[in-house]
From TrEMBL:
<dbReference type="GO" id="GO:0004378">
    <property type="term" value="F:GDP-Man:Man(1)GlcNAc(2)-PP-Dol alpha-1,3-mannosyltransferase activity"/>
</dbReference>
<comment type="pathway">
    <text>Protein modification; protein glycosylation.</text>
</comment>
<keyword id="KW-0328">Glycosyltransferase</keyword>
<protein>
    <recommendedName>
        <fullName>Alpha-1,3/1,6-mannosyltransferase ALG2</fullName>
        <ecNumber>2.4.1.132</ecNumber>
        <ecNumber>2.4.1.257</ecNumber>
    </recommendedName>
</protein>
<dbReference type="Pfam" id="PF00534">
    <property type="entry name" value="Glycos_transf_1"/>
</dbReference>
<dbReference type="InterPro" id="IPR028098">
    <property type="entry name" value="Glyco_trans_4-like_N"/>
</dbReference>
<keyword id="KW-0808">Transferase</keyword>
<feature type="domain" description="Glycosyl transferase family 1">
    <location>
        <begin position="226"/>
        <end position="388"/>
    </location>
</feature>
<keyword id="KW-0472">Membrane</keyword>
<dbReference type="InterPro" id="IPR027054">
    <property type="entry name" value="ALG2"/>
</dbReference>
<comment type="function">
    <text>Mannosylates Man(2)GlcNAc(2)-dolichol diphosphate and Man(1)GlcNAc(2)-dolichol diphosphate to form Man(3)GlcNAc(2)-dolichol diphosphate.</text>
</comment>
<dbReference type="GO" id="GO:0005789">
    <property type="term" value="C:endoplasmic reticulum membrane"/>
</dbReference>
<dbReference type="Pfam" id="PF13439">
    <property type="entry name" value="Glyco_transf_4"/>
</dbReference>
<dbReference type="GO" id="GO:0102704">
    <property type="term" value="F:GDP-Man:Man(2)GlcNAc(2)-PP-Dol alpha-1,6-mannosyltransferase activity"/>
</dbReference>
<feature type="domain" description="Glycosyltransferase subfamily 4-like N-terminal">
    <location>
        <begin position="27"/>
        <end position="201"/>
    </location>
</feature>
<dbReference type="InterPro" id="IPR001296">
    <property type="entry name" value="Glyco_trans_1"/>
</dbReference>
<keyword id="KW-1133">Transmembrane helix</keyword>
């Protein structure tokens, strides 16, 4: 089903006003989830409004720009960091500011508020009269923080304590996978009484039927040689993109392969800029500069073209919370090569819809070689992946389960 179309009669008698509160409305998996949730509720007849602290017209999903969804940006003048540090504190302050705006200075008067990523705003959102507050946990922030010294521990202690307490203030808590649910229980022992509901993100099953737009040449990819593989991830170090480059170097010793490394790139994000340069440099050092093509922030039509063209998708993050990319690949009938940990162990069936590997260049290279040599195997995995996506991650299922968990009675 087209995300942007109403379901024609599936609406409910009681139409609700829904507000979504999100930190930075960019083009990542968390943003795609929130946009899809907004479209899903809108398709049921509810009015939906998104409140965010940052919305860059050049770095966002089209539905947030073309009028499909109403978006209000507040607090963009607040800093994202202080002297290159204190990112968590600044994120908390920005979301609290957005919550204060919504509760006391806007005329939105929501019946339901859905927020994600930063739970510090939940207690304030609870002050919105008669509104049910739903918090979607992509992954506990305290588990994402890198260990540090005494000053880091002093800085993180109140933030981590606030995260646990404020998360428990929500009327409902959703998680994106069973894996995240298990980590949630470990991270927040005082919230053992809080029920968790798993709501898998969705991906567009109709993408495979849409006509393709553009060419590889228009993306700067000129006649790649060998089996074509695609890495689709933001240019962040935690995504372990260097693993894909090292795997390509090893695989290319046995079979001709070419890797397209595409993903979200924000020129205002220091890590994106630095890591892009690091990866380009590493490709040259490994001697695979001619076997790797880099693409910044591909548009949705460009992503479909890349997914349609590749032999398989290479997904390198280890311990990923969910990972929408493998699901997008399966929707497009493409095999997936991913790490044998985290969300991909729930989405990808090893040997059936893809190959799950240890997070080493050797293991990934072996998987690439296997699929490069056996096109029919990759095609069979892609077909089975499509069937799995239709069963677990369809748009209709997402709409139904989201609506049920948001509006069901206590």
């Amino acid at each position: 089903m087209d995300r942007n179309k109403d379901d024609g009669g599936g609406g409910d008698a009681a139409v609700s006003r829904v507000c979504m509160v999100h930190l930075d409305l960019g083009v990542g998996g968390a943003e795609r989830l929130m946009v899809d949730a907004a479209l899903a509720l809108r398709s049921r007849g509810h009015t939906v409004h998104i409140v965010t602290t940052h919305h860059d017209p050049k770095h966002c999903f089209p539905e947030t720009l073309d009028g499909t969804l109403k978006v209000t940006t507040v607090g963009d003048w607040l800093p994202r960091s202080i002297l290159g540090r204190l990112y968590a504190l600044c994120s908390y302050l920005r979301m609290v500011f957005a919550a204060i705006y919504l509760v006391w200075f806007s005329d939105l008067q929501p019946d339901v508020i859905i927020c994600d990523q930063v739970s510090a705003c939940v207690p304030i959102l609870r002050m919105c009269r008669n509104a049910r507050v739903v918090f979607y946990c992509h992954f506990p922030d305290l588990m994402l923080s890198k260990p540090g010294g005494l000053l880091k521990r002093i800085y993180r202690w109140p933030i981590d304590a606030l995260e646990q307490w404020s998360t428990g203030c929500a009327h409902r808590v959703l998680v994106n996978s069973r894996f995240t649910g298990e980590v949630f229980r470990q991270a927040f022992p005082r919230l053992s009484h809080v029920p968790l509901r798993v709501l898998y993100p969705t991906a567009s099953l109709s993408s495979v039927e849409r006509p393709l737009e553009g060419t590889l040449e228009e993306l700067g990819i000129d006649k790649p040689q060998g089996a074509l593989f695609l890495s689709l991830n933001r240019f962040e170090r935690k995504k372990s993109l260097a693993l894909a480059l090292k795997a390509v170097e090893l695989a290319s010793r046995e079979v001709p392969v070419h890797l397209i490394m595409a993903g979200g790139y924000d020129p205002e994000c220091r890590e994106n800029v630095e890591h892009w340069d690091e990866l380009v440099s590493l490709a040259e050092q490994l001697g695979v500069g001619q076997r790797v093509s880099f693409v910044r922030s591909p548009s949705e039509p460009a992503k479909r073209l890349l997914l349609h063209t590749c032999r398989a998708v290479v997904y390198t993050p280890a311990g990923e919370h969910f990972g929408i990319v493998p699901v997008e690949a399966m929707c497009m009938r493409r095999a997936v090569v991913a790490c044998d940990s985290g969300g991909p162990t729930e989405t990808v069936l090893h040997g059936e819809t893809g190959l799950l590997c240890a997070p080493t260049p050797e293991a990934f290279a072996a998987a690439l070689v296997r699929l490069a040599r056996d096109r029919s195997l990759a095609q069979e995995m892609g077909e089975r992946g499509r069937e799995r996506a239709e069963t677990l991650f369809s748009w209709d299922r997402f709409v139904r389960e989201l609506h049920q968990v948001v509006f069901e009675e206590e």
